[in-house]
Description:
16 helices; 8 strands; Arc Repressor Mutant, subunit A; five-stranded antiparallel β-sheet; elongated
Amino acid sequence: MERRALSETERRILYRFAEFTLSPSTRRLLRGETEIPLIPRYFDLLVLLIESRHEAVNREDIFDRVWSDVIVSDGALTQAIRILRKSLGDQARDPRFIRTVSRHGYRFIFPDVVELEEPSPVNGKSLEAAIAILCDAEAPSNDVEETRLRDAAETVLRLGTDENLSLFNEIARAFLRDARWGLPHADQAPLLGPPGAFATVRTLVSLRLRRTWRLARERWLGATLGGIAAGSLGGLLGALVLLTGPGSRATGSILIALPLVGAAVGGLGAFGVGGGLASAEALVRSYRSAALVLLGSAGGGMVGAVAHFVGRYTIEGLFGRDMSPIVGGVEGFALGAAAGIGYALATPVPDGGMATPRGTARLKAAVLTGSTCALAGLTLALTGYHLGAMSLDFMAQSFPGSQVSLEPLARLLGESQPGMATHGVISGFEGLLFGFGLAAGLTTSPRHRRRNLQIEAAPPSVLPTDVT
């Protein structure tokens, strides 16, 4: 989810309160005739609080609206509130403008806010300062410098300028192009053309790759953990069926062995597919759905092929058994593509970027992704390919005395031996669990929200004394 653009209605409104005037269109905060400088995200936060002044704004909503494109800690919000209060001459313990709502968020409490129509936006000193920063742009050496350049680029694009953007160097043009995608109503930011078109593209790719890693790594981990959980659950359910089904030869140890195997298979698959999906959301803007399918299938296919190669030739080398039918690249490719399709359908983001579904929307994403993966699993089974459970059954047939034969489940489904019905049911169910766990893990709330919930749940005696 990207930082939202101001609507046309919001662009025409001035907010006046006490001695201050706030102009969303020109992005200026004035005390009388004096402009108070604010970095773009802090300005967005002030606008959000004033727009929502009739109710308290939850911390999660603030992160979704102001910091939706980056993962930050609670300290970023604390610092933002502190700076806003300092800019407004407000006090945390006796607030005039911004009040902390315990265990919830913040509220703008000044009672007399006047909304006026602004006839025509006027570019202020902030635009001139932003242009000056971009004109002197150099490759950023740390996150602070990168944030400064990105904020300057956003300011130029939001306010518009008559400057010839091609006069900026390749670093400034790359930042302008990158910021352009988060601002649907902003001016155009040409990427190609002289001077330095190649250098501009190279700089833009470098920016996107660094941001991709920052944004994708936590979602990647969440997806992997979701796959581990789904695989463990599938292994446990399978063990219970094999232990209690008709003609079972299994012992209680299978209740430990199968969940562990399921966790390994599910986690490995989710590592590949989840990495592809997280990278697609963080890296690609223009064609998000296509990127989800392409990179999801690529990640799944790559991990599946490597796992197949290592597993097959290890077993064949040690035991002399032909393990060619075990799960591999084709299965990983198909599941990755199915997961990308389901996730893209369930989480449309018109302007590209990361989806942040919550509640029922998150459940819908998990169910739809699970459904498309179930369909892929069924299709694979009908065409002779093997997912994790069927690969284990094949290995069980190669090693007499194995406890993981699927015959008990087959008998429950009316087959004397595992046939097409057994293969289809197991593979479809395995795909369902995998897709559900993958999407649920991929959409886990960022770390800053989880830390926030932990702080809110703590007793008052351990809460920070500097409450902002």
